[in-house]
Amino acid sequence: LERSVILVAGGSGARFGGPTPKQFLLLQGKPLLCWSIEAFYRYDPSLQIIVVLPRPNLDSWSVLCKAHRFHVPHELTAGGQERFHSVRNGMAHVPHNGLVAVHDGVRPLVSSALIERCFDHAGTHHTAIPVVPISSSVRQILGAGESTALLRSALRAVQTPQCFDAALLRSALELPYDASLTDEATLVERTGEKVHLVDGEERNIKVTSAQDLVLAEQLLAQ
Amino acid sequence: LERSVILVAGGSGARFGGPTPKQFLLLQGKPLLCWSIEAFYRYDPSLQIIVVLPRPNLDSWSVLCKAHRFHVPHELTAGGQERFHSVRNGMAHVPHNGLVAVHDGVRPLVSSALIERCFDHAGTHHTAIPVVPISSSVRQILGAGESTALLRSALRAVQTPQCFDAALLRSALELPYDASLTDEATLVERTGEKVHLVDGEERNIKVTSAQDLVLAEQLLAQ
């Protein structure tokens, strides 16, 4: 079965307050995005790796790759307005009807074991989404001044890589854009397909703040 | 209006894998619990401060206070089986029908502004619970193999201090223990009272892992 990963690195880094897009921030001296690409290359060097970057960052990415002597082969494409459009642009590079993983470019610590688990389960169940328990109590806003407690033990935080039958993801991306769908699992559910959950990893953090970067450094040091 | 805070520090520290209860771990050389107590003392030196500790830790706490020359006045009481029972033991020390805040002993970075906001809103609305947005996509398990996406923009992570009319919290604690209620807000809702939400603080983290401790050090350094 042919397999691809689309690494989505569309963020502008605005939350860091600095001019560096967060996928280019350095973790142990190497850009976050390099870590994420290497994680998939390490898992399977024959995997098709597609990286989606905002158009204004394409040039600096090639400069960064040279500076860091980063030679892992990958295809590059420009992102769109929202994540949905970026994934769609990435999918245009997938020529097969095998399996496709969509991964956050800023989750540098994903393990080969987790990538394998996601592809394996997607091979059987058509979808595979890694999830972890949620540590805090959660409430749901119902309306003005109204909210309700959710049963914490029934909640899961969603991670990536989210893996799908390529044909399934492709048809999900043909439906109209909806801003309330914050991951690919919810996109695919719109086609009527059931989402299959697998165990994620606590280490597989999304680096979206300077604090997360410090945490990632710590996790690597362990 | 008379006011008290119950600092709940019942955890055994098992998640750190070490013998030190997590509330005694050092943040910038000072036990976490000292930071939390000081935050409330700084807000209002006349506030009644009640600290609930597991019975086996009461002795080492007094040793720690001497070693760190920690002299902020507080009342001490032994915790119970679960958080519910610990809060109930703490409430037995509250002599008034004013306002009571319940705060995690391992949230050392709570600000005076947040404490004030919670007490103020509880004075008007009978309850005040600090909440912050949730950064990851969340799914809810419905049953075997079934789950559904929740609308992330409607979700909030719950923090402490959770503030209540003392009489309200007292009557909530008279109802039978239920393991599914993971915070005091859900306890109080059982009485029929509506829970009022206020803006929490990203900095107001709960330190429950060695990684959180590193993050707290970083937040303090900023």
Task: Describe it.
2 copies of one chain form a homodimer. The first copy, chain A, is an alpha/beta fold and 222 residues long. Helices cover 32% and strands 24% of the residues of chain A. Chain A has 7 helices and 12 strands. In chain A, the strands form 3 sheets. In chain A, strands 1, 4, 5, 6, 7, 10, 11 and 12 form an 8-stranded mixed beta sheet that branches. Chain A has a two-stranded antiparallel sheet with strand order 2-3. Chain A has a two-stranded antiparallel sheet with strand order 8-9. In chain A, α1 (32-43) crosses α4. The radius of gyration of chain A is 17 Å and the shape is globular. The termini of chain A are far apart. Chains A and B meet through β8, β9, β10, α6 and α7 of A and β8, β9, β10, α6 and α7 of B.
List the helices and strands and how they pair.
Two copies of one chain form a homodimer.
Chain A: E1 3-8, E2 26-27, E3 30-31, H1 32-43, E4 48-53, H2 58-67, E5 75-78, H3 83-91, E6 99-104, H4 112-125, E7 127-133, E8 138-143, E9 146-149, E10 155-158, E11 162-165, H5 166-172, H6 184-189, E12 197-199, H7 210-221
Parallel strand pairs in A: 1-4, 1-6, 4-5, 7-12
Antiparallel strand pairs in A: 2-3, 6-11, 7-10, 7-11, 8-9
Helix pairs in contact in A: 1-4
